[in-house]
Amino acid sequence: MHLVRYLSPVDGRPVPGVRTVDAVAPLPGVNSFAELLRLSLEELRAEVDKAGETLPVAGLTFLPPLDGRGEVWCAGVTYERSRGARMEESSEQSVYDKVYTADRPELFQKAPAWRVVVDGEPVGIRSDSGHDVPEPELAVVANSHGEIVGFTVCNDMSSRSIEGVNPLYVPQAKLFAGGCALASGIRPVWEVADPKKLGIDLVIRRGGDEVFSGTTSTEKLVRELQDLIDVLFLPNDFPDGVILATGTGIVPELDFALAEGDVITITIDEVGTLTNTVAAGREPFGFLATDNLEGIR
């Protein structure tokens, strides 16, 4: 089961629902994910149990599982592989070595809800970078009370060339059009036995050929998930919930860079799959602003 948002086939408005393999059931009386994520975990689970009559998945358009004032944040350098990759590319290697073992995690804002792309939509690479990679990550979904309510798949797109020049360029290396993708569904926390024992797989295809693949496990994540959420909530309110991507344990070697047209597929056991095709520059993502203004995202 996954919590999803989709466009109503009747009037085109976004509808929160519960998806099984080939069917979706709307949540009666719930108009947005923001409403769901204002509830306590117990209350949210009760609302899910009220799901209405199902309709077929075929032909439906699914939206990112976040809306309203929801935000996506990221944690950095939480896997040993990430620490090593950041040190390889950076002119300031000690910064990444220190943050990996520090009490305080690296946290940064990735995108507001309206900037997020979903499974099947394009992801972006910067036109001024030249060396971009995907970062496959388990994303933790927290409600406004700081409770973990579910998990999804995140692709935290990153410019290695920009961050490598200077760690202070991290915002430019991380925040750009098409830079944040989420799977269309949230797997409820009560359906995931142990989120610290999930396999993560990444495959990149170019012209139909596999040009990179990698695998890791959340067992290698050095931070505890609730600890990351607690640090995030300490100085901030998230009235419509927040999604926190927890870092990557898969980073291609320095001789690999994404190209326009590459197809990126990320799969996390028990959570879901996310597939996107790479587009370059800001122009392919103008639809995000337009759709937001028209109220269809």
Automatic annotation (TrEMBL):
InterPro entries linked: FAH (IPR051121), Fumarylacetoacetase-like_C (IPR011234), Fumarylacetoacetase_C_sf (IPR036663)
One GO MF term attached to the UniProt entry: metal ion binding
Keywords linked to the UniProt accession: Hydrolase, Metal-binding
Domain Fumarylacetoacetase-like C-terminal residue range list: 72-278
BP term (GO), one: small molecule metabolic process
Alphabetized PANTHER family for the sequence: 2-DEHYDRO-3-DEOXY-D-ARABINONATE DEHYDRATASE, FUMARYLACETOACETATE HYDROLASE DOMAIN-CONTAINING PROTEIN 2A-RELATED
Similarity remark: Belongs to the FAH family.
Protein name, entry field: Fumarylacetoacetate hydrolase
